[in-house]
Design goal:
This protein is of the alpha+beta class and about 140 residues long. The chain has one domain: Aminopeptidase, CATH 3.40.630.30. The protein is built from 4 helices and 5 strands, in the order E-H-H-E-E-E-H-E-H. It has a 5-stranded mixed beta sheet, with helices on both faces. It starts with a strand and ends in a 24-residue tail after the last helix.
């Protein structure tokens, strides 16, 4: 793998690429409008993964930076998978100073349990205490 760089600089994000991936190739945000992606970026702590200056991965955290965080929209472009980018990206998220000492850090995943388990994520200790409002097809017309 060439030199990998992880950054929280929102100005460096390739918002068009992020939107294209989420809206067309993700399993969780098909059809998401660009304005919604931009609003999510604006109100989140974002991480870009870059190889030779080209963005190849993304993750964002919604957090109060004191007690709670939710990790979302984690992806690595298909051509760059299997090279440790996702491991480095999640490690950077977990090491960020604003995300230390939180009482609860959550995420949802359908296929990357082992990636997150390395960082202490487990199924909810008290699943009966969790509730949600979930609209999986909200962006599909």
């Amino acid at each position: 793998m060439t030199a990998l760089h992880i950054s929280t600089d929102k100005a460096a994000l390739d918002v068009a690429m992020i939107h294209q991936f989420l809206s067309e190739r993700s399993t969780w945000a098909i059809g998401i409008p660009l304005a919604t992606v931009q609003r999510a970026i604006d109100h989140s702590l974002c991480f870009g993964a870059y190889l030779d200056g080209r963005q190849v991965g993304f993750a964002r955290v919604t957090t109060d930076r004191a007690t709670f965080a939710y990790l979302a929209d984690v992806f690595v472009l298909e051509a760059e998978r299997g090279q440790g980018v996702s491991k480095a990206l999640v490690a950077a998220v977990m090491a960020h100073p604003d995300l230390q000492g939180l009482r609860r850090f959550m995420l949802a995943t359908s296929d990357a349990h082992s990636l997150y388990a390395r960082h202490g994520f487990t199924p909810p200790a008290r699943p009966a205490s969790l509730m949600e409002r979930y609209f999986p097809d909200i962006y599909v017309n």
